[in-house]
Specification:
Layout lengths: L1 H19 L3 E3 L1 H17 L1 H7 L1 H6 L4 H16 L3 E3 L2 H22 L1
Antiparallel strand pairs: 1-2
């Protein structure tokens, strides 16, 4: 039940972030699928990319992590049919807004 709730909250956060950021569009089913795809990418691909770019992440005091998140959002946009991002900067700001919205929902859930 908790996994389902987290998936639903992530899908709502994706919808809210897509509404707030121009250049990002998502359908309802696209948001649900994007939540699964971003979760899988964060679980499987992100640790490897983070490890490979660790020196650059340390050099930028962790800010390069935002670039990694934006690249994962762009990768998800390629994979998910109901989710479209028009470029790097919308993906970058989408990743920031998505992190903030997920953080707010995690506070609300506790």
């Amino acid at each position: 039940m908790r996994l389902f709730f987290h998936w639903l909250v992530s899908a709502v956060a994706i919808g809210v972030a897509a509404y707030l950021i121009p250049g990002v569009s998502v359908t309802i089913t696209g948001a649900l699928i994007t939540a699964v795809v971003l979760g899988a990418l964060n679980l499987l691909v992100r640790p490897l990319i983070f490890l490979l770019t660790l020196p650059l992440t340390i050099l930028t005091l962790g800010l390069f992590t935002l670039v990694i998140n934006a690249l994962l959002v762009l990768l998800a946009a390629v994979v998910v049919p109901g989710f479209a991002v028009s470029g790097f900067w919308p993906a970058f700001f989408f990743a920031i807004v998505l992190s903030i919205v997920n953080w707010v929902f995690s506070i609300w859930r506790v």
